[in-house]
Amino acid sequence: MYDFNDTENFLKAHSSNEIKPGLERIANLLDSLGNPQNSWASFHIVGTNGKGSTGAYLSSIFKEAGYKTGFYSSPHLEKPDERLLINGIPLSADDWYKNLELAAGKIKKNFEPSYFELLTAAAFLLARDEKIDVGIIEAGLGGRLDATNLLGNTICSVIASISIDHTEFLGDTLEKIAGEKFAVVKKNIPACYSGDPASLIPLFKKFCYEHGAVPFVIPESVKLENINIMTEGCTFDFYSPNLEIKDVFTPLTGRYQVNNCALALSAVSCVMDKFRNLNAEKIKQGIKKTYWPGRFEIISKKPLIILDGGHNYGGVLRLVESVKELYQDKKIGIIYAAMRDKDYPGCLELFKEYLNPAVYFTTVPGMKRALTPDELLSAGKKINWRNNPRAFDLPEEALKNSISDNNDVNIICGSLYLIGYVRSKIDYIKNQ
């Protein structure tokens, strides 16, 4: 019997810790494994923010319609098995270890894969063995050179919101980053773009026309009406050429979740003719049953504690817009940690501009990539906060101080790794 410490150690021993853009290594590995990624129909999801939520909607919709789904996403919050869900359920460490061994055994000299590439190869083997009908495959980084961009039976390319992130690999402008993501579109295959930001729509259409893809843009192809944002979720009416559904309810909240959900529905509408079991009622029920933790997730109502994995400028912008809309005139406490390669100064400015919060700086314990609490405090002192900010080595201590300062809403945010750490401490936190 193996556990996930074993799988993690095996991954590290048989892969490179570097991010290695390029398809040669993963193509070589997948080919030697019989190209398992060609065994099912795939939705390929790229973008900067909203990929995971969009994938969760798609997975839930197809499961509700009776199709066996495989949902591959990254990073995980608490356990590595979250990265591949078969009908919403993770597989065992034994299953992962066996397929990691199989993949590693095919590695050729001078073709050492990255951590993500080896993990992706094992995930594709697992999905093939599970005989899934539909794969919802989220890109790890970028798109064009991402390990997931070798799917042989893509039925829809799905592009979520795009913003500045990973500039060292994808480019230093929004257009360069978008180009890396739009490049996944394929000939005669529908490509759905969220339309966020709207300035990139012409570039998206240009890529589609050059590659022979069929473009769909949410603001142009879809009409959303009767939008209602609540703490319990969102409702709206959806109208597209192939699909109309009234009173859609998603349990994921925040105005941006309406857009993510609409993107998933648009993608589904493009492939309705390929899946006879899909109908408006099953789609609606699938949306209603969607579960995706760590994104505007309320883990306690009294005191009110919200977890959100927004970790770049675009993600934090969507967070603060939603908080302002839902909790106007409430005292906000922000418990914040960040990776050192993110635009944390820009995120801090967003907090101040939209929320005027009290701020409590912390870190992700045990993670070298994370900024220290003192580094964040130093950056934060340039801003005039509602409180006198302090630095805390443990997120739970920062939260305790936010609660004791009588903030109405306590938001833990800045990194999915932070959210994963906090979710592992939920019982402790709720008992404080």
How would you summarize what this structure contains?
This protein is an alpha/beta fold.
Short descriptors:
single chain, 432 residues, alpha/beta, UDP-N-acetylmuramoyl-L-alanine:D-glutamate ligase, Protein-Tyrosine Phosphatase, Chain A, 2 domains, eight-stranded mixed β-sheet, six-stranded mixed β-sheet
CATH overall fold name of the largest domain: UDP-N-acetylmuramoyl-L-alanine:D-glutamate ligase
**How many strand units?**
17
As a whole number of angstroms, the C-alpha radius of gyration is 21 Å
Mean pLDDT: 94
Overview of the molecule:
- This protein is of the alpha/beta class and 432 residues long.
- The chain has 2 domains: 285 residues, UDP-N-acetylmuramoyl-L-alanine:D-glutamate ligase (3-Layer(aba) Sandwich), CATH 3.40.1190.10; 134 residues, Protein-Tyrosine Phosphatase, Chain A (Alpha-Beta Complex).
- Helices cover 39% and strands 19% of the residues.
- It has 17 helices and 17 strands.
- The strands form 3 sheets. The protein has an 8-stranded mixed sheet, sandwiched between helices. Strands 12-13-17-14-15-16 form a 6-stranded mixed sheet, sandwiched between helices.
- Helix 7 runs parallel beside helix 8 and helix 12 packs parallel to helix 13.
- The longest helix has 16 residues.
- The protein starts with a helix and ends with a helix.
- The model has no long low-confidence stretch (mean pLDDT 94).
